[in-house]
Batch of 2 targets.
Target 1
Amino acid sequence: MSQSDNPAAASPAASPADRAALLESLRWQKFPVLDDGFVALVDCMGDDAAVVQAARVSYGEGTRKVSDDRQLIRYLMRHAHTTPFEMAEIKFVIRVPMDCWRQWIRHRTASVNEYSTRYSLAIDSMQTTPGNEWRTQATNNRQGSAGLVAEDQGTRLTQAESDLQNNARRVYEERLSAGIAREQARKDLPLSTYTEAYWKIDLHNLFHFLALRMDAHAQLEIRRYAETIGHEIVSKLFPLCWEAFLDYRVEAMRLTRLDQGVIRRLAERGSPPPASHEDFLTAQDPSWVGLERSRERDECLAKLSVLGLVRS
Ligand SMILES: Cc1cc2nc3c(=O)[nH]c(=O)nc-3n(C[C@H](O)[C@H](O)[C@H](O)COP(=O)(O)OP(=O)(O)OC[C@H]3O[C@@H](n4cnc5c(N)ncnc54)[C@H](O)[C@@H]3O)c2cc1C
């Protein structure tokens, strides 16, 4: 294929030399996460231009007249035309506590190879929590946390954590010294124990992972990993795709039919927004009326607040 036949040649992407230099600067660089975890790029196939190149196969040459690469990528992201994003793949090596890994591994669309604690000694590192980072249980979300405990209580919790982790490690090592198989000796190690894995995923499925795990509803610990992958690595390797991902996934807002009804009723009232909280309550969808608690109503109110349509 000649240079002029290659749709990707129209891309404003970095030169091959710049791209190679960028990759070399990122590969194996350990971006720290939590107290002893990290994320590092091992390899990357493709770039923004690879996504564009694949898309132009389906849209043909005509596309070039109406849109540049950035516009095409943004169109693909907006309209969930996802397969071009599968043309790029990224391989990471990660070090992550087991409890976080348990959430991570639920994402089935990646290829994984994990450190074996049947074959090797369990990594001698457990995630620890500083006294000022113990979070209290959220009352409005059973899966979430809200606020922090007082620091003196946190200090006691951290001391207890340290005792428990040291004891668990001591028992593990005693079992090994007694000749117990590694596969059985490990069974009482805490979920805070770090593991390591190679994790390879295409860009489409990585964005799905990042959208779920960078979200405020995700647990803080895995959120830290997702944010590091996104901001430190993906944003540099795929600047145009990343920008579109932020605009149309991360920062986008879905308005349901019910949300739209509430907005319409607020607008019909004639009072220019922002309306008051009372206005919102009377404009609420009929299916929420009379309910003492409605998560959907709370979510709608949160969206309207972000949009500046409701004063609290
Ligand atoms: C905030 C939060 C809370 C959660 N809470 C819980 C919980 O309480 N309990 C719990 O068990 N899990 C929980 N999860 C995990 C969640 O249910 C998903 O398993 C996880 O997020 C992986 O999502 P996924 O299946 O979309 O991703 P992937 O496995 O990466 O799959 C990506 C997409 O591929 C498709 N796909 C993959 N495999 C299949 C398949 N076999 N059949 C059909 N389609 C497939 C689907 O479209 C899927 O969305 C939670 C996740 C989040 C983000």
Target 2
Amino acid sequence: MRITAAVSRAGAPAPVLEELELSEPRDDEILVRVVAAGICHTDLNSHIGLGMPVPKPAVLGHEGAGVVEQVGSAVGHLKVGDRVVISGGSCGNCPSCLAAKPSYCREAMPRSFGGRRSDGSTSLSKGDERVASHFFAQSSFATHCVANARGAVPIPEGVPLDVVAPMGCGVITGAGAVIEGLQLRPGQSIVVFGVGGVGLSAVMAAWVAGATTIVAVDTVAERNELALELGATHAIDAGAGDFMERFRAILPFGADFSFNTTTAASAFDAAVQVLAMQGVAGFVTRPREPWTPDMMAMLAHGRSVKGILGGSASPRLFIPKLVELWRQGRFPVEKMIARYDFADFGKAWHDCEAASVIKPVLLVGEE
Ligand SMILES: [Zn+2]
Ligand SMILES: [Zn+2]
């Protein structure tokens, strides 16, 4: 079928909307009419070739939500007309998949960044030109996408798809990290470095989970203010004054957890320094410059540093919980969303790059 998609071409400053051909879904896939799609920093990085390489041209997009239009013969949990949020791909058979930790699937990286199915085929083309598809098993910057069904999560009626679309990556990455990855318990404390979409999701999750001290750390005053509105008990402007001095005024003996969504080596240092005895520093990005952890400080305090992918959560188990929390008004994810018409893709992309909005969501089609 003919579709419109944002195509990433090597050297282009941003993806541009083009007409493409989309092939039929396979047995384990679904065809989704995309209603909304969030833009995540991994899309920005993959477009310019940072991090895991993605073959070009490619259609990116991995926070898609829409309506199922066709279902492969091997798909058991979905039917035509279902509303879904689409998360990443996984094999379903490796130890992590069997333990409901699909973000640590042995095939997670090729299934996310390989630009094709496991058999080497793509679902997208333009004339004779092959276009890489299946970015995070979906490539949802498009009016329709063929997605691996295993990562598609049914969404109940009455829950707006533009609100829940970012739950497929950014929101589960932050909220899952706190609840599943760090397993924060009521009465504990956490420091969140960087309160963009992932950090704010962590703040909301920490509040829901009963943390009694939630410290947001950012250089942007409006983001710190939003963090306070969404559950943070304190906020520190990372760009002003002695950070540790201000932190110790809040938690003299340190925090049970920190969660770092930034790439500054200084933040990785601070994320370890703020920890109490046996505290855990979770992180979701790499330091952009070489970083040498203070191993003695980690040893002397029994601290550890923990990488957390995809919130260490199963989207099909975890996203329905977030949706219910949203329905109850306890997880107001819409407060960090900025909506754009799909035709304004370039503006949404630019605003995401410039960090002038927190979570851009493209309105791709009617429900
Ligand atoms: Zn697997
Ligand atoms: Zn993402």
